Amino acid sequence: MADTYPSFLALLSSLRESLEQLTALTLRKAEAAAKDDLMALDEIMKQEQALGLAFRGMEQNREKLLRQLGCGPVPLSRLPEHFPPANQEEARQAVAALQSQYQDYRRHAGATRSLLESRLREIEGILSGMDGAPAPQSGAGYAPPPPPDTPPTMKTDFRA
């Protein structure tokens, strides 16, 4: 149990670093959207998805460590209270750094979301100015082309 507290602090540090990476990706996404660079935007979104998977793994690790500490579902702000007195200050600093990074991410993510939404509205405006928006297709917005007609001489009779 004594090594659980340093493991939890390492997890908080890892979460903060991952949030820093996510914040950097959010800033790059805004730059790509401003430059209309769809290829870069696609690559950034793939990297965000990979980070999302990493966050899921960290969440599972967090739950396991909380069970080992016997804390149960504790809000992040109250977590240092569950540490031994010798580790409480270090826990407070780790929690404060994580919360600060999260607020930084939220601020940048909100600005990026607004930029992306405005770009989508621009695209919708352009499409509606080009004889209206395309007719909605079934599925994910793509309808495969119909198969080419084959000449009757190329058809095979399997009844024989």
CATH architectural grouping: Up-down Bundle
Poorly predicted ranges: none
Helix content: 55-70%
Mean pLDDT: 85
Radius of gyration: 26 Å
Walk me through what this model shows.
The protein is an all-alpha fold and 160 residues long. The protein has one domain (4-131): Methane Monooxygenase Hydroxylase, Chain G, domain 1 (Up-down Bundle). It has three helices and no strands. It has helices at residues 4-34, 38-69, 85-129. α1 (4-34) packs parallel to α3. It is elongated.
Chain-wise SSE layout:
Blueprint: H1 4-34, H2 38-69, H3 85-129
Helix pairs in contact: 1-2, 1-3
Task: Give a brief outline of the structure.
This protein is mostly helical and 160 residues long.
Characteristic key phrases:
160 residues; mainly alpha; Methane Monooxygenase Hydroxylase, Chain G, domain 1; 0% strand
